[in-house]
Every structure is written in structure tokens, then in C-alpha cells.
């Protein structure tokens, strides 16, 4: 039997690097912090690959794959039956996430050596990156819900620190606060859901609660509130927390603003850490959703479907390159939620679950490549706006080719990675929910259109008159692009269904050639439309936008969701509720306390004569008081 206890160092190394870099990083040359952080992540990347090899090919050669608790120690006993443990659980999806998180984190660390060179706070930046990686790794290997929640909050803190890295910019500070506050509201729901689950099941251990044969849910299923079981409320609230982290509608508003952080941070957030945490949470608890709260699971699918189409429509009209990619992430995460929402259990019926995890895996590669490619472009032209770009293929050949590979992958064009995983999600939706299939099918075409709109506008369109001639990024930035491009072109060939199968979730996927042809066709159609409109400079896109009128403006203004939130918070919560509470606090509560103080002061002024210091006066008052009390007592006794 292989001893996996060494995996604790996969968590401890980035934590130690965070502490060392955070405390002493400012005392040495900035590059040392960068190299230390990169070397630390490279070490745990190798360890994660070794863990995957041991798990899949040594311990469980050929599958099925059983969960292994590599470490588990009692951290905090609560009651006789409830204890919080800290540990490491290895199963197919947690091992897959170890590889994904460390791969993208390593690429971001490496890339940042060039991208962040010369920035103030270089050591602080690498310290926060290590903390972010540690937090996500702790989340994916958690052995129970409370450990997962603790690391959920650490992920939120880390993202707050990195989004607000440029704290001198008011927009960055506002974006960091927005992300933190929105996700805290969602996490509050997550926490309540955990408490409901714990109250009725007396367990939050993943091995127990994800066993479909467990009897611990019987009590919860028998308790109802407003027509739904207590367990349905619990899983719905847990999904609320997942939706906040994954920026599902209506919690999506923080993610586009999070682009205020450095671009490598955006790559890490969008590809491997924060936004995929929500998808991982639903996948981890999938047996609970499927067997005990199937209506909530269907809700997960519909929220994902709406978010994917909604975000894709907005992405078509944006001109900030990072915001286009941000809305693209919303759309792709929605795809994953649809895969989970339409999935059944085991065999061909479990295709949606397998496809969602496969898409999480492939999406990490090409979305990180898109963001790092965007960073390379911004590094060259010093702007995020497409209007200030054009013709860059001549100046940045490596960035151009690698970005094209990522665009083909996200569009689902074979043989690139996105084709394989997206096709499986469409197949699962076609089998179990035709409405969601058509939503995602249309979204697939829109995805190809908006990503190639971006590609043609940046690399083809007109050759902008740049102040300084753009040039290719340094090797510290281009090598990660080449590595991710290679992965984006090849990881689709991984027989992923074999690596996700387990005793609890066996898979036997089949190829649906009719859907394959249909999904490739819609992707090519979107690509062709983008080619016609944006291959060369012309006024046709402007004429179409003008013809669409208010529809275009609504899409460009993101359907005014941010304005609705601002109206609710400022006009209702602040102006009406908060002002009323402030008035009550100022005039009633403070007035009462001030009144008590005034009465006390006046009374003390009146009676201060009793404190004269004359012994005869004290004796007189004392004796008189005793006589009055005695006469009063005698009177009542006689009565």
C-alpha cells in the first residue's frame, strides 16, 4: 500500500513560502521572492503529478478508484458526535484538481517573473499568490464540509488581497471590496446550509454524506419548511455559496470588476482557483443532490444555463479585452453547472458529471492561456481596449499563435481540448434536458463568435499607429504561453472518463456523432461570422450595432444589473433602511443614554451636599434613616 502522507507538504510548502516571503521578502532583492515562490510551486507541481501517478496507476491501476484519506487529525471537538477534522482526502476529482491548481499556479508564477518585473510590492504579490494556492489546495482535499468552508473563506481573503493589489487605484480597491462583500453574502448562505445539514445528519464527513446508501438523511427528508424538505433547503443554500464563488447569476457582478488585479491573478482566479471552487463543491456533494434533492440539482442546471447564455451575450459587445474573457469565464462555468445539473448517476447516465469535470480540466488550460495571452498583449500596447490594438500578429508571433490555439479550444473546434469536453456536456443535456441543450448549443455559437471577434480585432483589423512599436514578450512570459498552448491542443485526448470513474460514480460514455457534427458546425458558424465582420477594418459592425438600437445598448451596458444593485444598496438599503436605523440610533438610543447621563448629573448635583465631610451630619443622617425605616416596619407589622 502506498503511503500518501507526504501529500501534506503539497499544502505546507506554499504556506511556508507565503510566511517567509511575506515577513522577509521586503528585505532582499525582489527577484528572490519571485524565484522562491516559483520554486515552491514547481516543487508541489511535481509532487501533485507524482500523487496522480501513484493514485491512478499504482494503487488503483485500471480503476475503479476509491477515496483514500491520506491524513486526518482531530482539530476541534464540538460534541460527542461532531468533530472538526483537518485532513487530506484523495479521490479522482481531488487528485485532478491538485494537478490543475498546481499547473496553472506554476504558469502564473513563472509568467509573473516577467509581467510584474519592476512593480512595487513584488514580494507582497508573490506572498499572496502562494497564500491563494495554499487556500485552493486545502479546499479541494478537504475531508469534511467545515474544513472546506474554512478554506473557502481563505480563498476569498486571498482573492481580496490580489484583486486589490494596486491599492493606490480607487477602482482596484472598489473591485476588491465588491468581490469580498458579494461572496460573503453567498458564503453566509453556504454556512447556514452546512448548519442545517449538520443538525439533521450529525455528520459533515464527505465519506459519510456522499455515500448513497447512508441512512443519515432520513430525518432531514422527513422535516419540511414551506413545502420543501430541510435537506433541500440545505443543499440550495450550499449552492448559494458555490454560486457566489463561481460568480453565477445573480452573484456574477464581482467577477468582471476583479480584472483590476494583475493579469496573472486573473488567469489564476478564472482558470484554477476561485471560480471553479463552486463547481468543485457541487461535484463533491453530487450524490447528495442527485439522490436526495433532485429538484435542487435541476435548479443548478437552470442557473448555469441562464448564466452561460447571459454572459455570452454581454461578451459580444465589450471592448475591454480582460472583461470579454471575464464574461467568457462566467459562460464556461455555467456550462459546467449545466453538466452537473442534467447528470444522472453512473454509466452513460452519468455523462453530465464526467463532462463537467472534464470541461473544468480543459477549460483551466485554455482559459489560463487566454488570460496570459491578454496579459502579453497589454504588456506590449499598455492598454486593455481593443480600439487601441490591431495588426499585432506581425509584432507578436508567439502570442498570436498561442492565443489562436486557445480561441480554437474554447470554440470547440477539433482537435483542440474544448471540443471534447464541451461536446460531452451538450450530449448530456441533449439526453436529459432539451431546453438546456438548445440554450448551450446557441451559447456555443456565440462563444466562437465573441472570442474570434476579439482575436480578429486584436491581431488582424487595422494596423494601429502605436506610440512605441510593440514587441514580443520576454521568454519568462512566452514559455508559459507555449506550454499552455501545447496542453490546450492535447489534453482533450486524455481518456478522462476512466480517471473519474469510481465505485460511487462509474462511467461508460458513448460517442454521439450527430451531436459532434452539430456542435462543430455551430462553432464554425460563429467563427465564420466573426471572420466576415472583423477580419478587416469596416463599418459593418457599427451599422449592425446601430440597427440593433436599444438591444445592443442593453447588452453593452450589461443589462444594467450593476445599476440595479447600486439602486438597491444606495437608494433602499442606505437611504431608507440605513438612514432610519441611524436616526433611531442617534436620537432614541443615544438620546436615552444622554438623558440618563443628564439625570445622573442633575441628581448628583442636588445630593452632593450629603458628601460634606462633617461627621456629625453623617451620624444625624444615619440615625434619622434608621428611625424612619424602623417606624415604617413597625407600621406595616401593626397593620
Give the SSE layout:
Layout: H1 8-24, H2 30-59, E1 68-77, E2 83-90, H3 92-115, H4 122-140, H5 145-163, H6 170-201, H7 206-209, H8 218-222, E3 224-225, E4 228-229, H9 230-245, H10 254-257, H11 263-271, H12 274-284, H13 286-292, H14 294-315, H15 321-342, H16 351-381, H17 397-410, H18 417-432, H19 434-459, H20 475-490, H21 496-500, H22 513-534, H23 540-548, H24 550-556, H25 561-607, H26 615-638
Antiparallel strand pairs: 1-2, 3-4
Helix pairs in contact: 1-2, 1-4, 2-3, 2-4, 3-4, 3-11, 3-16, 3-20, 4-5, 5-6, 6-9, 9-12, 11-16, 12-15, 12-16, 13-14, 14-15, 14-19, 15-16, 15-18, 15-19, 16-17, 16-18, 16-20, 17-19, 17-20, 18-19, 18-22, 19-22
Mean pLDDT over the residues: 88
Helix count from the secondary structure assignment: 26
SS-derived structural category: mainly alpha
SSE order, one letter for each helix or strand: HHEEHHHHHHEEHHHHHHHHHHHHHHHHHH
Q: State the low-pLDDT regions, or none.
A: none
Proportion of residues in extended strands: under 5%
Distance separating the two termini: 92 Å
The oligomeric status of these chains comes to: single chain
Give the total of beta strands: 4
How would you sum up this structure, described in words?
The protein has 639 residues and is mostly helical. It is 72% helix and 3% strand. The radius of gyration is 30 Å and the shape is globular. The longest helix has 47 residues, at 561-607. Among the domains are: 293-556, no CATH class; 565-638.
Entry keywords:
mainly alpha, 639 residues, single chain, two-stranded antiparallel sheet, globular, 26 helices
